[in-house]
């Protein structure tokens, strides 16, 4: 993986345990497709690690206490913690829509207040933090390497950042570890009732569950500064050890040249995108460019991703209908898999991995059309499904609804009676509803296909 801190690749070799932490959502609203891009990149990384034989301990947190949560909950007349938990459940629902494999743990910040307080106390004792009437602050100047992740000096970083105003701070660059409050959710502490600062949450959860140094720390590129810079400062000041071997950052999804963000009001919710475009098309699109490059939302790109998914989808159904059973080796399948594995192992090159799977799918389609798929090597299916799973694809579960099956049976009878135009009308009606019929020697296969329902974005026609 490419390491943001060193700028060099970091290699990991199985078998061993891989420890990974990814900064998750602040749960005050529904997740949007900008969040989905980050989720999907780390989902593929998670799946790839498992496929290569790693034992992985993967944490992705929920920030469930924050000023935005408190403000939204107050306006809704709801307890902030209950409000946050509602959006935790909504986020988990969205992850399931996208077939995102659950991390090992998804801890909440509010479950780790004691761990945060222990870390804060340790920083005070080590001379890296100080107590003032408004709370506890980290003294940035006590960590000489501050700025090493974002490649800037403290003064440069502060010039372009929003600095918390507090007359008690010794230095404008210092950031809060604990804030004293008299309203909202409060926890007792040695420094007064209050709430933790944002940055200390992740450091505490990592230290509690993964140890002092982890293998991979990930998140969106917008977290490099100040969040991850501050995490490094407080964690490494506390332990004296590097926080992570590799820092992996996913660049932003932009809409009309602006970062997709709730604060800008230009978001497309994950659940709405899945309804409009389908989960596999959305996954293909968000993985269609290198994760280290910004992705400008494009209708043309979305349509192309849908076309690519339909090719993959068709091959998947062909393999379900005609599972290869031959015992001979398939050099073609091995070549496709090697190309895929080289791509996915080269700093998670998902665009090249998807392109390889599309070409492999076309190869399978040719075998199917020539009626050679069932007798081909079992390796064709084995390699295809491995690639399919690493990229996180999924065919719709379960059989079609009963009314669809009844129409399929009626079509069979019509065909047996020679009423082909009536049978074709049923086929066309089912296709319009998202069901594709493929006549096999012994039955009719019903394929639930993904449709691009609309290419509208934020209410504007494409």
From TrEMBL:
Its cofactor is Zn(2+). Pfam families: tRNA-synt_1e. Keywords: Aminoacyl-tRNA synthetase, ATP-binding, Cytoplasm, Ligase, Metal-binding, Nucleotide-binding, Protein biosynthesis, Zinc. Residues 14-303 form the tRNA synthetases class I catalytic domain. It is found in: Cytoplasm. Belongs to the class-I aminoacyl-tRNA synthetase family. PANTHER family: CYSTEINE--TRNA LIGASE, CYTOPLASMIC (PTHR10890:SF3), CYSTEINYL-TRNA SYNTHETASE (PTHR10890). This is Cysteine--tRNA ligase. The lineage of its organism: Archaea, Nitrososphaerota, Conexivisphaeria, Conexivisphaerales, Conexivisphaeraceae. The gene is cysS.
């Amino acid at each position: 993986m490419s390491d943001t801190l060193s700028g060099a690749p970091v290699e990991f070799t199985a078998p061993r345990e891989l420890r990974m932490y990814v900064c998750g959502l602040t749960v005050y609203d529904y997740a949007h497709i900008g969040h989905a891009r980050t989720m999907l990149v780390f989902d593929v990384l998670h799946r790839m690690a498992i496929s290569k034989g790693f034992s992985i301990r993967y944490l992705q947190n929920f920030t469930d206490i924050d000023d935005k949560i408190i403000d939204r909950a107050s306006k809704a007349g709801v307890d902030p913690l209950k409000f946050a938990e509602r959006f935790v459940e909504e986020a988990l629902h969205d992850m399931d829509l996208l077939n995102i494999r659950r991390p090992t743990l998804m801890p909440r910040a509010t479950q780790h207040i004691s761990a945060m307080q222990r870390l804060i106390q340790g920083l005070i004792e080590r001379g890296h933090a100080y107590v003032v009437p408004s709370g506890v602050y980290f003294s940035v100047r006590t960590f000489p390497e501050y700025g090493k992740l974002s490649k800037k000096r403290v003064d440069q970083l502060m010039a372009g950042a929003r600095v918390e105003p507090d007359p008690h701070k010794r230095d404008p660059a210092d950031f809060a570890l604990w804030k004293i409050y008299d309203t909202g959710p409060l926890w007792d502490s040695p420094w007064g009732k209050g709430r933790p600062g944002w940055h200390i949450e992740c450091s505490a959860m990592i230290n509690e569950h993964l140890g002092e140094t982890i293998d991979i720390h990930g998140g969106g590129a917008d977290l490099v500064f100040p969040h991850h810079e501050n995490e490094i400062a407080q964690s490494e000041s506390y332990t004296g050890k590097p926080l992570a071997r590799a820092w992996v950052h996913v660049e932003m999804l932009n809409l009309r040249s602006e970062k997709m963000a709730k604060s800008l009001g230009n978001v497309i919710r994950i659940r709405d995108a899945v309804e409009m475009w389908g989960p596999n098309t959305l996954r293909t699109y968000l993985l269609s460019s290198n994760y280290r490059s910004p992705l400008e939302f494009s209708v043309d790109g979305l349509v192309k991703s849908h076309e690519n998914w339909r090719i993959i989808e068709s091959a998947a159904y062909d393999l379900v209908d005609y599972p290869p059973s031959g015992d001979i080796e398939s050099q073609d399948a091995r070549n496709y898999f090697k190309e895929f594995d080289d791509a996915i192992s080269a700093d998670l090159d998902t665009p090249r991995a998807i392109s390889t799977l599309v070409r492999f799918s076309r190869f399978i389609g040719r075998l199917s059309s020539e009626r050679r798929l069932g007798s081909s090597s079992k390796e064709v299916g084995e390699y295809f499904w491995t690639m399919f799973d690493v990229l996180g694809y999924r065919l719709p579960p379960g059989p079609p609804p009963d009314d669809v099956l009844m129409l399929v049976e009626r079509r069979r009878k019509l065909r047996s009676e020679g009423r082909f135009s009536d049978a074709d009308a049923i086929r066309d009606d089912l296709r319009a509803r998202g069901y594709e019929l493929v006549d096999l020697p012994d039955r009719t296969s019903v394929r639930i296909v993904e449709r691009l329902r609309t290419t509208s974005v934020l209410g504007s026609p494409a």
